[in-house]
Amino acid sequence: MVILVTILCILFISYSLVFFNFKVDKKPDHVISEFLPVSIIIAGKNEGHNLNGLFQSLERLNYPPSYFEIIFVDDSSADNTFNIAKKLSLNFTNMKVYKVNNKKYEGKRGALQFGIDKSKYGIILITDADCRPEPEWINAFVNLFGKGYDFLFGISPFVQKNGFVNRLACFENLWTHILTFSFASIGLPYSAASRSFGFNKKSFLSVGGYSETTDTISGDDDLLLREAIKAKLKIGTVTAKDSFVFTFAKSKVKEYFFQKVRHTKTSNYYLLKHKILLGAWHLLNTIFLLSPVLMFISVYSGILFILKFLIDIIIVKSRMKLLKYKFKIIEIVFYQSVYDLLIILVFISGPFTKNRW
């Protein structure tokens, strides 16, 4: 038992050391040698209530309007998304608003493909209708595209508020960034959020666009990244100051849970090496979390529980400010426990839940 506990501790610590690779540049990366033309694609469905904030953020983007266009695609909304977008677009000289009914692909990827087909520039940036890009968002991406990257993904935190669902979502979002950006830093990117995502259009076309990402109705971002990985394209992360894309977490337990299920189901279509990498990490967390029930076999199993939460607290406390989050130690212990148990519940519920866009 001592040998087993020792091996598990070594594995857990090894993973944890990798997570300290998640860092944010302290200085804004906006001094660029050349302005590159950019097309921003935004797909929205029933997002009329979010558009004022989105468009205000787009107006504050620190990039010459003559060097970028904004294409907003209303994906057959049942509300007044299209009319609001058309009205707000009058404040821009570089924006076009479309309504799409017949799509090449199901779900969000179909609306995005429509926008990409309408775009006229070689660099594509994608965000969502409920997002708030910071002023240096375009600059930070362009800087790295100028260095030869094919695909890039950036930091996209939630706006932290009071309330159980919001704080749990923020805690999960923090861990998502720690995992995705840390593994990307060691050459193992596996996931990207479409809230802050970009690619060279030629690279996008070289992997077949969205044609190879139709395994599931969701996951257009993760599965597109999967194809880029398979093609051995150059993939990077955008972590410059003032380049974040903020959004709002679900406010109801049911909405949050089904969103989590949808995202988790996409992981079934990851590459095998990424499934093993993530599966081993989550399995370790489950074993460590439930280790107290094994103390009747050996008191050494209690070491796993103590080590887990000690390391969890250290990692979260040292990284939460990067995404402008605040959690007390008691909150870290509580939300970490809920987060780990939720992963198990979501995994079990996945096969019985239908994806929707």
What does this molecule look like?
The protein is of the alpha/beta class and 357 residues long. The chain has a domain at 38-161 and 189-249: Spore Coat Polysaccharide Biosynthesis Protein SpsA, Chain A, CATH 3.90.550. Helices cover 47% and strands 11% of the residues. The chain contains twelve helices and nine strands. It has helices at residues 2-19, 51-59, 81-88, 107-118, 137-145, 164-185, 201-206, 220-230, 253-266, 272-290, 301-319, 329-349; strands spanning 38-44, 68-74, 95-99, 123-128, 132-133, 151-154, 197-200, 235-238, 245-246. The strands form two sheets. Strands 3-2-1-4-7-6-8 form a seven-stranded mixed sheet, sandwiched between helices. A two-stranded antiparallel ribbon has the order 5-9. Helix 1 (2-19) runs parallel beside helix 11 (301-319) and helix 11 (301-319) crosses helix 12. The longest helix has 22 residues, at 164-185. The radius of gyration is 21 Å and the shape is globular. The N and C termini lie far apart (48 Å).
